[in-house]
Amino acid sequence: MTIVLLTGTISAAVALVFGTLLDDMLATALGAVAPSGLWLSQVRSREDEKRSLGREAATFWLVTLLARLDQAMAEDQWIWCERRIEDEWSIYELSLAAHRYHDRIGERLNPEERRRERINVRLEAIDRKLDVAALIEDGAPRAKVVTALNGSRHTRLARYERYLNDLNRLHGNLRHDAERELLRLLAAAYRAGYRSLPRFTPPSRRPAAESLRSHP
After folding, report:
1. What are phi and psi of 28, to 5 degrees?
2. What's the rounded Cα separation, in Å, for the pair 104 and 197?
3. Looking at residues 26-46, what average pLDDT do you find?
4. How many whole angstroms separate alpha carbon 65 and alpha carbon 68?
5. Residue 30's pLDDT is what?
6. Smallest Cα–Cα separation from 157: which of 179, 128, 135?
7. Does an H or E element contain 6, and which?
8. Can you tell me the distance from the alpha carbon of 45 to that of 54, in angstroms, rounded to the nearest whole number?
9. CB 190 within 8 A of CB 196
């Protein structure tokens, strides 16, 4: 709200001041365009660059406010996504959640948005990682785990191969990476404005009446 009020005030002030010196149309254009320079200055600034007091005062501290707004929006997105994943889910439940979210999000996005957000690729990555994690949970021999890892470009990675002598740790890394991919999938829904996406509840944890309705 502060940013909206300040940019609106600056726009009006620029238009009024230049309105006495320039043509009305040009003054109006300057008043509309002037605040956009704040965005450009923010984009061009480096994260590690120290902002001077003079520069902050000249922009009414709006550049700092815009940077904080970006950070707050990123944090809001991350929190929204994290609330739709539960740490206590099993591998099977995590896979069910990924497919449910993928289907719901895919219905909301148009073909171009689905391609740009790579939601099918992300689902495939989640499936392949969880498949190998499930093999480890089932006590599969090391040779079978190696074959499964090499069977997909999503798991044929050096960061997994280095833990072949510690399958428990490999299992944790695979699950962690699958959850990260699911967070990125959920972020696509957030960016598309699909904030009403319902949280997934595994069938085994739903109330009895709800389970009967969803599984007649």
Report:
1. -65, -40
2. 8
3. 55
4. 5
5. 56
6. 128
7. helix 2-19
8. 15
9. no
